[in-house]
Amino acid sequence: MTEKESKQVKMEDVQAKADEKKCPVQKSLVFIEEFLAGPMCGRCFPCSMGIYEARIRTARIVEGTAADEDIETIKKISSHMQVASMCKKGKDTAKYLLEQIDSNEFADHISGVCSSNECIEQIKYIIIPENCTMCGDCLDACRDNAIIGEKKKAYLSGYMPFEIVQKRCTKCGECMKVCKHGAVRLISAKEMAEAETVGA
User: Fold this and answer.
1) Of 30, 48, 155, 172, which shows the fewest CB atoms inside 10 Å?
2) Over 60: is that where the pLDDT of 37 sits?
3) Residues 126, 105: one domain?
4) Mean pLDDT across 2-19
5) How buried is residue 150: exposed, middle or buried, by Cβ count under 10 Å (0-12/13-18/19+)?
6) 48, 79, 110: which is the final residue of a domain?
């Protein structure tokens, strides 16, 4: 066996890497990227052109910037690949993508919900003011300086309540881990948008 052959990525390895994720959309994106990086030969049109477009569309869904049209396009690309790809690798990739799309998770992502909470653009951490004791544990734990507010001091009032600045938050979840009072909550982007609409 040559060095080149020993380094070849097998389709089993591609699927194993994708299956480490829980979210079907994340699984699909990882599968596509691993397929492009390894087994894809690029000798036929359905794979060499279609799979790159599928990656762009799937990434949009992960990022929360997609529309229903993106799901339909991925379905069309996968259906064409399943029929017209010259090798089993392309057909297997198409089959995997179609199986993931059938889970309805893709449609949920369009509305701002990742049920597995793996797509960071689809989740938000917020602080519930009535549960917050202003102990400052979340403030100390946040390495991204995404939490603003003041720790409570005895005999003083007029504190600025704790709040998570969404544009700074990297969704690491450390604030929720250290909060002893259940003041930090994980919500979907859809819930956040609905709350902002009500508060407007």
Assistant:
1) 155
2) yes
3) no
4) 75
5) middle
6) 110
pTM over 0.85: no
Residue 117 within a domain:
no
What would the mean pLDDT of 62-67 be, rounded to a whole number? Answer: 92
73 assigned to some structural domain: yes
Query: Which are the contacts of 86, defined by CB distance < 8 A and separation ≥ 6?
Result: 43, 44
Tens digit of each residue's pLDDT (9 = 90 or more) over 87-101: 899 999 999 999 999
- Indicate the number of domains in the chain: 2
The contacts found for 81-86 with CB under 8 angstroms, 24 or more apart, are 81/46, 81/47, 81/50, 81/51, 84/44, 84/45, 84/46, 85/44, 85/46, 85/47, 86/43, 86/44
